Amino acid sequence: MRISGWLTATVSAAIMLQAGTAMAQSLDELAAAAEAEGMLTTIALPRDWCNYEGVFRTFQEKYPNITLNELNPNASSAEELEAIRANMNNTGPQAPDVIDVGLAFGPQAKDEGLIQPYMVSTWDSIPEEAKDPEGYWYGDYYGVMSFAVNTDLVEDVPQSFADLLDPQYAGMVALAGDPRASNQAILAVMAAGMARGAEPGQAAGEAGLQFFKELNDMGNFVPVIAGSGTLAQGTTPIVIQWDYNALATRDTLNGNPPVEVVVPSDVTLAGVYVQAISAYAPHPNAAKLWMEHLYSDEGQIEWLRGYCHPIRYNDLVERGVVPQELLDALPPAEAYERAVFPTIEQVNANRDAVVNGWDSVVGADVVE
Questions:
Q1: Which GO terms describe its molecular function (predicted)?
Q2: What is the CATH topology of the domain spanning 143-268+338-361?
Q3: In this predicted model, what pLDDT tens digit does every residue of 127-176 receive, in sequence order?
């Protein structure tokens, strides 16, 4: 599947030359400088999200002298930016070096001066529409919104957002995040609105809020932040989340209980996440080395093992470097052919509508 039409970017030769100063070191020089710093501080990277377990492992195998300091694995995108703001003058272990946030949060962080530019050595193979032309943020992976369903408790598996309004799903449906702060949950609300025919952006955000108001009013919505534990325990038998998280949960639970993953028939919303380096990173060279690892063939394939489509996916496939068994393990390509990639303007408009309207429209306080 191609990533096109969802984000407009114009890259001039002058801008590329200016930003190119951010990648002056050779990889060996960068590794030496990073090892001298001795630490990399990450935030909001659960090891079962996108196979970050494998990403961390392969990074440590290559650079054993760099200690990984993992902050708040379950932080939201908004909390990641707040962690940078709160630690601008702090070079201690609570200051993140790198962030992995929803698409809308990349330009916001740039506008606030919270991130710094860096172009990885594989920069040219990242689609132009998926990166900031000056190198401040760059797409890392994408997936589509789906339902993870505990089929021990749900006999009639819902196939669409419209199905979720059936009374048989009373006390069953949850989001995998707080829609006032979590990118995943914010876009789940937009997906619900798009399923009702609204255009991506503010209209879909507002329509999605109405959908969740109905879901909440009828008692189908469970106001807790759902995950693999709540799904397995039966607290939230139906979880709306990215397909890669749902598929990883299915594999982790290994049939206990059985989990079915559904891409809803009434909408296929794709979501892109982006990487960036904190402008106040205590370990800037380790941060750059981390980015080199993430955007190498090896790092991209590790994400793919976690069912996330890495941003360099087309390049990897065209060069024949993706193991066939890994391609065979992915969901059918047809599930992604109708995916809609919202523009950054649409993502921002939806975020504003959802974050500002959730409490007044839906009125459900989503908690851990």
A1: thiamine binding; thiamine pyrophosphate binding
A2: D-Maltodextrin-Binding Protein; domain 2 (3.40.190)
A3: 998 999 999 999 999 999 999 999 999 999 999 999 999 999 999 999 99
